[in-house]
Amino acid sequence: MTRHAPFALALACTAALAAAPLAAQDTTTAVRPGMQEADVVARWGQPVAVRRAGDWTYLFFLNGAEREYGYYDCVFLQGGQVVDAVVRAPEHVYLGTSSSPPGRIPEFTPPRQAPPPGAAAAGTVTGVRVSGTPTTPERPET
With CB atoms counted within 10 Å of each terminal CB, which end of the chain scores lower, N or C? Predict the structure, then answer.
């Protein structure tokens, strides 16, 4: 019996480890793209703040690491539907593709530079064609 004890222990550990990912994949409280605000609140509770701007709604939730990360977990809704989420709390699960996944290292984004004078960007109107004889408008008297 003692000879089989290591095998039984290894089997029990393997079974426990195999079950762990299944528990971690519980999606009953997960937020998905396309959900409405009420669905998010039903899963994660009342947000600490809600901001609305035009067609956009931003739901802010505590994540327990506001001092470390510098922000709340945030769910973005456009037209009343979830389109993105930035989450850090382990109990908040977003099943879409986040614009800021955990572990992403912030990097500098340089500002867009204007094209040099005389160079036109693609699709830019570069001038007006004038037909006929050009005339110079008269200046008003001052």
Answer: C
* 14 CB-near residues (< 8 Å, 6+ apart): none
Q: Which residue has the tokens 């937020």?
A: 31
Place of tokens 């500098």: 108
Q: 77 is in which domain, residue-wise? A: 26-97
For the chain, what percent of residues have pLDDT higher than 70?
Answer: 61
What does the chain come to in residues?
A: 142
Question: By C-alpha distance, which of 67, 62, 109, 103 is closest to 75?
Answer: 62
Q: What is the CATH number of the domain that holds 41?
A: 3.30.1450
Does the pTM exceed 0.70?
A: no
